[in-house]
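User: Can you model how 2-phosphoglycolic acid sits in this protein?
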Amino acid sequence: MRKPLIAGNWKMNTTLEEAKSLVRAILNELDGIEGVEKVLCPPFISLVAIKELLRGTSVELGAQNMYFEDKGAYTGEISPIMLADLCDFVILGHSERRQYFFETDEIVNKKVKKAFEIGLKPIMCVGESLKDNETGKTEHVITNRVRAGLAGISPTGQLVIAYEPIWAIGTGKAATGKQAEVTIGLIRNIVAGLWNRETAVAVRILYGGSVTSTNIAEFIAEPDIDGALVGGASLKANEFLSILKQTAKLKSTR
Ligand code: PGA
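Assistant: Here's the modeled complex, given as C-alpha cells:
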C-alpha cells in the first residue's frame, strides 16, 4: 500500500513573516491528520524558520529546487548539502523551472541523482504542453521525460513523481481524474519498464495542476493517483486543510 502524499508548493510567494503565519494557521489541524504524508515547500529563505515550527510534528519540509553541485562558484544557487539536514523532499524539474529557467531533462536528471546521493527524496515533475496534448503527443513527451529524468538511477521506491500537465498549472483548468489516471498509469508502466514492476508499484505518483478542495476527491478516487502537488490552493489555510482531510478520508476507505 502506498501512503498518499500531499505537498504544498508555495512557489515565489510569502515573505518570512507571511510564511510563518501560514504555518501557524494550519499546523494544529495539519499535524492531527493521519494516513497522509504532509509536505510543505516554502521559499528557500523561510526553510530554517519553518523547520523550527515543524519540529516535533508529523509535517515534513521540502525545497522547491536545488543545484546539482555540492559547493563552489555558482552565484545565487542553493546546494544539496545546504538542504540535506533541513529538508526531507525537494521538488525537481517543475515546469516553471523548465520554462523560465531553461532546465533540460539532462539537468533534471543530474539533480535527481544528486538528491538521492545526499538523502533527499525528489519529487520529479513531468508534464506536457497544451500543444503536445492537443496533437496527441502526451505519451511520447511523458515517456521521454521520465526516461531521461531517471537515466542512470538505481531503482528505488523513494522516488516521487508529479504528473503536472503544463496547461493545468495555475490556470484553473485541471485535468479530469480520468485523464490524470491514464497518464499516471502510463508513467507507472514506464518506471516498470525502466526499473521493475515491484519498484514501480512502490513509487508514488502525484497529480498537480489547479488542484483545489473542490476537485481533489476526483483525483484521489483513482487507484494510481497517490496524492497531489498543490500550488495556489496551498497558500490558503482552509483550502489546504480541506484537501488533506479529504485525501485522508478517501484513501482510508478505499
Ligand atoms: P497550481 O500549481 O496548483 O497553482 O496549478 C501546481 C504546481 O505548479 O505544482
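A couple of observations from the model: The chain has eleven helices and eight strands. The longest strand covers residues 121-126.
User: Helpful, thanks.
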